[in-house]
TrEMBL record:
Residues 297-308 have a biased composition (Basic and acidic residues). This is F-box domain-containing protein. It comes from the Eukaryota. Residues 293-317 are annotated as: Disordered.
Length: 370
């Protein structure tokens, strides 16, 4: 019987081995391949068990984009506690997560939200709360996506970091205690923003440069479809969702871009098929941040300043009375997704699809990847 030799790294240059390990450890988020949220990091975890060297090569790749939801938040908190304990018992095994996390997704419906209650440990000299462990990781990422219903977790992390910061931040001698520049909020609603009542929350929003609403609420998507199919708005017009009137836009002092998602509507539109939870291609609109500041929210984005066929004369009258001006589509970048995504259904059915949209890279070389 011919024996097939086992694969081995023997004889390969170290640089080639490192590339192989990093490629194998990278989670798959692309739309063209299978996606199982619970198995995203399975290969990287196995590589971490091979050796300490493999672990230090695989962990940065695994941590680059972290997706935390009701299924794996508990495991992630346990891993953070373990690193904290390693610092006291086995320093060689400790790995600092925070510097390697670039993108992090939080939600939905977390079974175990991080608490500020101290967690007892027989290894650490002082008990540390889960909130103290997760806050540096969450705020260290440059891109943060979080369900709007979980915004209280973000507020708690911001307040914790703010209160521990030296007071001379006011004179500019210290950087802000977070790196977040892109804030993605999922399943927006018309609730008030409690974080704006805190100095820490206001400072956080002031540092955001890109705001993304992803995905839209099911009702918002349906309203947009109805407005188009009933020809209340033109085929190139977009009525802004109601929640935009509740966003404290003036708090986003450094805001450069705002991105919104709409279902693609091409007439004739099959409403029956859509109501069966059929998927639709998405249209992503990105407009300058200056266009949403100083107003409660634009009433509509128009293809041609209200002269487009199908526009509502009633909306023109309302605009004249209120003094609101419409945003021209010429000032908005529109991209269409390569793949259809769901716009209707329960959160549990939708969140993994939109996790993949977000994690696969919302924007690459100026082109949206969905």
């Amino acid at each position: 019987m011919k024996i097939t030799p086992r694969a081995s790294f023997n004889g390969l240059p170290t640089e080639i081995v490192a590339i192989i390990i990093k490629y194998a450890a990278k989670p798959t988020f692309t739309q063209d391949e299978g996606y199982e949220p619970t198995h995203l990091y399975a290969t990287a975890r196995k590589l971490c068990l091979v050796s300490r060297i493999f672990r230090h090569l695989a962990l940065p790749i695994m941590l680059h984009t972290v997706v935390l939801d009701f299924e794996n938040m508990t495991a992630f908190l346990r891993a953070l506690r373990m690193q904290n304990e390693y610092a006291q018992t086995y320093p060689a095994l400790r790995f600092e997560y925070t510097p390697h996390v670039r993108n992090i997704w939080i939600g939905p419906c977390l079974d175990e939200c991080p608490s500020d209650a101290p967690v007892d440990s027989s290894f650490t000299s002082e008990p540390v709360s889960d909130l103290e462990l997760i806050a540096p990781v969450l705020l260290g990422a440059s891109s943060l996506a979080i369900y709007f219903s979980c915004l209280n977790l973000l507020t708690s992390c911001i307040e914790l970091a703010w209160t521990r910061m030296d007071q001379n931040i006011d004179n500019g001698s210290l950087p802000l205690p977070w790196n977040t520049k892109t804030l993605t909020l999922s399943r927006m609603s018309c609730d008030s923003w409690e974080m704006t009542k805190l100095a820490s929350g206001s400072a956080f929003l002031a540092s955001i440069t890109h705001f993304i609403a992803l995905p839209p609420d099911e009702n918002d998507a349906l309203v947009h479809i109805l407005l188009r199919t009933e020809r209340i708005i033109g085929p190139q017009n977009y009525a802004m969702p109601l929640w935009m009137s509740y966003v404290p836009w003036n708090s986003f002092e450094r805001l450069e871009r705002v991105s919104l998602v709409f279902p693609r509507v091409q007439l004739p539109f099959d409403m029956v098929k859509y109501r069966r939870r059929a998927e639709q291609h998405a249209e992503v609109l990105t407009l300058p941040g200056s266009m949403v500041k100083g107003r409660r929210g634009p009433a509509e984005i128009r293809g041609s300043k209200g002269t487009e066929e199908g526009s509502s004369s009633l909306q023109d009258d309302d605009a004249a009375v209120s003094g609101e001006d419409f945003i021209s589509l010429n000032d908005v970048h529109v991209a269409v997704s390569d793949h259809p995504v769901p716009f209707c259904g329960c959160d549990m059915c939708l969140h993994s699809d939109w996790q993949k949209v977000w994690a696969s890279g919302l924007q690459a070389k100026g082109r949206w990847v969905l």
